[in-house]
Amino acid sequence: MEKTPALILAPLPDFLMQPLLAAHVCHDYFHAADKAALLAQVGGEIRAIVMAGGSVAPVPLLEQLPRLEIMSVFGVGYDGVPVDWCKAHGIRVTNTPDVLTEDVADTASALVLMTSRQLIAANRFLHAGSWLKGAFPLAHALHGKLAGIVGLGRIGKAIARRLEAHGMRIAYHGRTQQDVGWEYHASLTELARAVDYLVVACPGGAATKHLINAEVLAALGSKGTLINIARGSVVDEGALISALQNGTIRGAGLDVFENEPQVPEALLQCANAVLLPHLGSGTHETRAAMARLVVENLAAHFSGQPLLTPVC
Ligand code: 8YV
């Protein structure tokens, strides 16, 4: 079968690039020194785009790809894809749901544990030889505490189940109340006021940009901790830094940032923040399953079969 031309918008791992190269003529837009020249040269041929969860495909770029048929996202979050524009132009979009749910939920519950029990600081304390001089300070228990999930989708529910196993009570906020046993808060600020841990698990994009703002952080309060495994865009990072610096909130556990991989120096300096380099889905097993979905969705499309995990 003839290889279809594809545009690669993100740095992708080898185990994904190999099968992509076997089926497509891949043009590396991400690493191209002269992106405009690359588009001028091959834009007219491109029939597929492959991108990551955090990457963005702006409309002006897509407008230069008149033969584009499908965009395959190596990630569950497709906030970087202009989905309405794709629908209007008959362009299919796929993502990688479900296969990463458990790993991302593990990361969220690890951040809850690391922030509550001060595990990162405790590790540093021991490596520094400080145990010989005295005991590590007491931390905070999880059992009996209230966790508020923002966005009770598949990942949000998997996080809630894990936190229940730690003896926590669960509440949630989202657009609609769901048929679950957990307490619903129609107001995000009220949820923040009620909980000890506010865990962000909603999609990114314009609809949720800076949902967690100064007002929500003030409501979370000095005994509250913010956890974010969703998208950096959901949290007003400037307001979060101020809240961490001033003790408006007790701490934060973050896997995602507004401008990755750039993390503001002021945030790096916050001792009350546990920071991870967007590794929520970063296991061999899950990334391999995600890569398979990317490749199989493209193969299904170009052989006229139904898509495995369509967004539209
Ligand atoms: C990945 C993600 O880190 O699924 C998502 O939306 O952001 C992550 O799982 C990313 O897509 C892989 O580069």
From TrEMBL:
> Any one cellular component term from GO for this entry?
cytosol
Q: Which PANTHER family match?
A: 2-HYDROXYACID DEHYDROGENASE YGL185C-RELATED (PTHR10996:SF178), 2-HYDROXYACID DEHYDROGENASE-RELATED (PTHR10996)
D-isomer specific 2-hydroxyacid dehydrogenase NAD-binding domain boundaries: 110-280
What family name appears in the similarity comment? Answer: Belongs to the D-isomer specific 2-hydroxyacid dehydrogenase family.
Keyword NAD present in the record's keywords: the answer is yes
Alphabetical UniProt keywords: NAD, NADP, Oxidoreductase
Using the record's annotation, list all stretches that form the D-isomer specific 2-hydroxyacid dehydrogenase catalytic domain.
18-311
Q: What is this protein called?
A: Lactate dehydrogenase-like 2-hydroxyacid dehydrogenase
An example Gene Ontology molecular-function term = glyoxylate reductase (NADPH) activity
